[in-house]
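Morning, I've got a small favour to ask if you have a moment. I owe you a coffee for this, so here goes:

…
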Amino acid sequence: MTDIFVFDTNSLISASILPNSFLRQAFEKALKLGSIASSQEVFEEYTEVLFRRKFDKYFIFDEERFTILNLIQTKLLIFSPVEKITDCRDPKDNKFLELSISSKASCIISGDKDLLALHPFREILILNATDFINNF
């Protein structure tokens, strides 16, 4: 059985638009080791964030964003979490915990302090990109 990994939205955005980042390296390592989980809610948030104007400096045309979306979507396993979790001090981050439980993830990759503070969560590691690359 291969490992399943969850990336929070900011980590997935950075992996998508910063080719030389630790997050891109973590994303590529996760794909080599297994699969990356998402949910409809997480993918919709990723899409909305990717199209924010603050990321215009990374794209000449919106078609580039659609290309990234299509590429990322082909790499994801989609899950439909059923368990509601309220353990995170930032309620918007609970969806990543729910996804990690429903997908039986080995690890959540995140730089978010609210998620990192929960490490480990129900035996699921929560690591930043550097720790994931060096220790997983």
Notes: The longest strand covers residues 34-39. The first helix runs from residue 9 to 17. The chain has a mean pLDDT of 96. Residues 28 and 49 are 21 Å apart (CA to CA).
